[in-house]
C-alpha cells in the first residue's frame, strides 16, 4: 500500500505519518493499532520487526493470528475486508443469524467471491476469532509498553479487555460465541485454547512483574491469574446480557485487584 493510502485509511495527515515512520514523531497507541489493522501486521512487528518479541503481552502462536496467504495486495485487502465485515456481523447478530449473502452484501462482493477466499461460514468465524486475538494483542502492546508501574499496568491491561464501547463489546461477543461453540460443537477447540492461554499468560506475567517489584502479594501467580480471569469472564457475560454496565464491571475488577493482589503501603506481603 502507498503511504498516502495508508494515511487516508488511518484518518491521519500524511506528513504526520511520515514523521512517525521516520522516528521524528511518536505514534499514539491508537495510531499504532490502526496502522497494524490496516496493513495486516501486528504492532509487535511494527515496533520490533518480529511477531514473537516478548513484551508486556505474550505473543500469540502463529496458528491463532490471522492466516497468511501467498497473494498480492489486492487479494490480501479483500480477505481482510471480508474478515472484518464478518466479525462485526457475527458480533452483532450471532453466528447462526449471519448468512454468506449478508457478508457478501456488507463487503459489496458476490457470494462466489466470498467462497473464493473462504470455504464456508465456519472458516470465516474461525478467522474472526483470530482477528479478535490480533486486535487484543495489538492493543496491549501499544498501550502497555510505556507503562512501567506494575499496578497501573495490570489495571490498564484489564481495562483494555472490558466489553466497553462498540468494538470492545463486539470482541467480547466473539469470545462468548466461541465458548458456546466449543462447549456444544467442539469445533475450534484448539484455536480457542491457544488464544485463551495467551491471554491467561499475559495476565499472569503482569502479576509476576508486580510480585518481583514487591507491589503484589506473594501468592502463586497462576492462582491469582485464574481468579482474576475467571472474574473477568463471568462479569463480561453479565455485561453482554444486560445485568451489569461495563463501568460497574470495571469497578468490581479494580476492587478485586486492590483487595486481593495489591499490597497496601506499609503492609507485609
TrEMBL record:
Known DNA-binding region: 99-118
PROSITE patterns linked to this entry: HTH_CROC1, HTH_TETR_2
Domain of life the protein comes from: Bacteria
Record protein name field: Transcriptional regulator
Listed transmembrane segments: none
Keyword DNA-binding applies: yes
Gene Ontology MF, one: DNA-binding transcription factor activity
Record-annotated HTH cro/C1-type domain positions: 3-46
HTH tetR-type domain segment(s): 76-136
Keywords: DNA-binding, Repressor, Transcription, Transcription regulation
Alphabetized InterPro entries for the sequence: BetI_C, Cro/C1-type_HTH, Homeodomain-like_sf, HTH-type_TetR-like_transc_reg, HTH_TetR, Lambda_DNA-bd_dom_sf, Tet_transcr_reg_TetR-rel_C_sf
Gene3D superfamilies referenced in this protein's UniProt entry, alphabetically: lambda repressor-like DNA-binding domains (1.10.260.40), Tetracycline Repressor, domain 2 (1.10.357.10)
Amino acid at each position: 500500500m502507498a503511504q498516502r493510502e495508508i494515511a487516508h485509511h488511518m484518518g491521519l495527515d500524511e506528513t504526520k505519518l511520515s514523521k512517525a515512520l521516520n522516528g521524528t514523531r511518536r505514534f499514539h497507541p491508537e495510531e499504532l493499532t490502526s496502522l497494524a489493522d490496516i496493513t495486516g501486521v501486528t504492532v509487535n512487528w511494527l515496533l520490533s520487526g518480529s511477531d514473537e518479541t516478548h513484551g508486556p503481552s505474550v505473543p500469540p502462536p502463529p496458528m491463532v493470528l490471522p492466516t497468511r496467504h501467498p497473494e498480492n495486495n489486492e487479494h490480501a485487502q479483500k480477505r481482510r475486508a471480508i474478515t472484518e465485515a464478518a466479525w462485526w456481523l457475527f458480533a452483532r447478530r450471532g453466528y447462526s443469524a449471519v448468512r454468506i449473502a449478508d457478508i457478501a452484501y456488507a463487503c459489496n462482493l458476490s457470494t462466489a467471491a466470498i467462497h473464493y477466499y473462504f470455504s464456508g461460514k465456519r472458516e470465516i468465524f474461525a478467522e474472526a476469532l483470530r482477528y479478535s486475538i490480533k486486535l487484543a494483542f495489538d492493543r496491549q502492546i501499544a498501550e502497555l509498553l510505556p507503562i512501567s508501574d506494575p499496578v497501573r499496568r495490570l489495571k490498564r491491561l484489564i481495562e483494555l479487555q472490558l466489553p466497553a464501547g462498540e468494538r470492545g463489546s463486539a470482541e467480547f461477543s466473539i469470545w462468548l460465541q466461541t465458548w458456546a461453540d466449543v462447549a456444544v460443537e467442539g469445533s475450534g477447540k484448539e484455536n480457542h485454547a491457544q488464544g485463551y492461554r495467551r491471554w491467561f499468560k499475559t495476565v499472569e506475567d503482569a502479576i509476576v512483574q508486580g510480585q518481583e517489584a514487591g507491589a503484589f502479594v506473594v501468592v502463586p501467580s497462576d492462582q491469582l491469574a485464574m481468579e482474576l480471569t475467571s472474574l473477568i469472564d463471568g462479569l463480561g457475560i453479565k455485561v453482554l446480557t444486560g445485568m451489569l454496565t461495563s463501568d460497574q464491571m470495571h469497578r468490581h475488577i479494580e476492587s478485586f485487584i486492590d483487595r486481593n493482589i495489591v499490597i497496601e503501603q506499609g503492609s507485609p506481603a
